[in-house]
Predict the 3D structure of the following.
Amino acid sequence: MTHDVRDFQTEVLERSRTVPVLVDFWAEWCGPCRILGPTLERLAASAGGRWVLAKLNTEEFPDVAMQYGIRSIPNVKLFIDGKAVNEFVGALPEPAIVEWLKKAIPAKKIAEVETAQALLESLQFQKAQKLLEPVVNGDPGNHQASALLAKALFLDDPERAVKVVEGIEADSDYHDLAEAIRIFYDLKERIARNALPEGPARERYIEAGKDLLKGEFGAALAELIEVVREDRYYDDDGARKVCIGIFKYLGEEHPTTLKYRKEFNRALFS
């Protein structure tokens, strides 16, 4: 696929009104440009249409280069709605470019995600799911939408929920919510297999897990806090981890989190 720009107005400015356009300002004589170019082309091919690449030879279009203040190449500018909104200069390594793109490219369907987040704060899971599924299908790299969809799915379809957050790791802003989903799923599976360790807190811990899986978060927290008091390190400090997971799942300002946070902290340090 060719990315060479012949008509900047049409191929960059007008096109950027429908999809972000990443413009690589380069020249044949520029050694770093020859290093950066294939990396950008590879990333564009795997972007799934979330953004597109345009390559502009500054020797052929010096007026455009001058218009956008190109003094050193390679220079990469991101155009959205007909305007240059972000840039980097130099042949960055691929991981650095990937991180730059994550921050620079706006997530699709921001309004839908924000509405879904508000629905989830009031535990309206099915309504949020309907909003989030098309967002995630169209933009699988949107970690916010994926984590929120997993939250919406967990009580009814925990297997699917944990798959949705597979790619969300520690470097993501949504890792805490994704990790909560994974902790809940692991507890569910071990309860089903009768695989929890023996100990005086075992039955209370199982009941807390069952309450959690029914969406009875207050009851689950009350039981888990008692487990923390009775046997803090049962199941490798499991009660503490599940409590923190519930707080992350509900949100720090949720009434249930606010009700049990102080009691949890007292149990930890009593």
In short: The CA atoms of residues 115 and 139 lie 17 Å apart.
